[in-house]
Amino acid sequence: MSPLRARRGTRGPDRRSGLTASLVGTLVVVAALAIFSRFLPARLTPFHHHGLVAPHFRSLAGIGVLTGDLGHTFLRMILATMTGAVIAAILALGAAKIPLLGSPIRTALGGLHMVPLLCLLPFFHLMGFEFSAIAVPALCLAAPIATATLNAWAVIPRTLDEATRALGLTSWQRLWRLEAPYAIPESVTSLAKAMPMAWCVLIASEMLPVDGTLPARPGLGVHAAQAASIGSLWQSFLAVLLTGVLAFLYDSCLVFPWQIWADRYRLTPIFDHAPDPWMLKFWRRTRLLKRSGEIMRRCLAWVGDIRLGRTGFRPVTLARAPSPLLGLSAGFILLLTVMGFFYNHHALDLHDLLVVTIQSLISALRMTVALVLASVIGVPLGVWLCLSARRAAPARIVARLLTLYPKNILFPVLGLAMISAGIPRQIGPTLLCLFFILWLFLAQILRGMRSYPPDLLQAARNLQVRGWLWWQRVVLPGLAPALVDAASAASATGWTILILAERSSWASQGQDGGGIGAYVARAIEAGDLPRVVLGAAVLTLCIALGEILVWHPIRLQIQRRIQTSLN
Questions:
Q1: 16, 48, 110, 320: which has the fewest C-beta neighbours closer than 10 Å?
Q2: Looking at the whole model, is its pTM more than 0.70?
């Protein structure tokens, strides 16, 4: 289905409101970055292609160094998760409870979904390495959690509203007894979906050199970056192995138990027949942990019983279609941003705009090839794995772990392998991007096949439907929503991964494959804030155009056809 054909029949308030809010939010975020960068002291270091400057290497040998790196990365992820959850709660409460902040916060959240947050690294790095390593993954988690919370609150059943009014609950009690429990499942699910990107951004924050120097703080990403700089394969493999162990333990000990625990708040549980993970069993069977959990539950119940606020119905606001003036204002904001950013700038001129345009076209070609190859490989493989229950169960576990694993820590080693194999440096970033997004495709296809009606497959088998007719009439129509979601998520993630894939390095020799990702990575290495903002604006525009012109129209077309067939 071509994007132009998919746009037919998708006009309406839903499409216009969602796209306009996302577009305005994207432009506002980029404009804020541009304004902020002009007030900061731009580092006018030469925009070079040379190797990294790493004057002070710490020792990479010994068990103490590895355990210290493991512990520091674990603590950063814990702090990032907690910080992201707190920021998401503040944003959701501000958007839902304060009418003046509702529209701006929703607009900003729509923009944050399309901004490659890794470009914020040099800005946060001005406040210190630890702050940047925690703040960037925290923002990766905060925007999806806040959006999921607001979406859950928007569909609270009317009967529950009437029950809170009949019980005479205040607004504070309603928040703790209805709204918070109702939003917990969707918030935890969005946290689990955003966790792979958060791991990727955390490792990238530890690996990327800012201002030309590698970090000297402990961390698995720092360990891998320094091992790649000195050309140590053994230390690189140790960092890769420990990163996988840490990501697996974090998911099995915290994220997946949270999902099982949050499932009790769903009206229709999805993990009803799933066995409890070992961490929940350990928590329930340990006397000290069980007692502390009970004390925490009583404290939260006491806080929720406090009668604060007013009683009555929650005001229901009907979504209205935005005015066409919003689209014109979005274009006007874009024009003012471009003019204001380049006007009398001490480091940039219009030639830089031409450079980033050419580099973005190179990266767009790589992203298109990677998406096509990922779909060609992932769809048949995922369908074949799910046709047998014996293959499907272990395949879902492996796909979950491979999706969660921050594969960008392997990029220096894979870059060395491709150089040794004689693969041209222009093709290497495409293979690295394919290696990253392939597992997103596979996991989404496995999830889509899990909800596919088995009766349809059995009916097609009885009717002896085979070959391309089987794919065209049976499998692909049922997997269409999962395919579009997989392609949309892989596209948004892939543009961020290009920053790392196009600038992979081994033994302090930057293997620059060209493209907008390499442009941004070189700007981050040089600490050149104006060029970081320019590259971030172009990356954001690429992500937004893909979502607005391709994925969103196709998604609405599929929803319309499914609804028509159901009617």
A1: 320
A2: yes
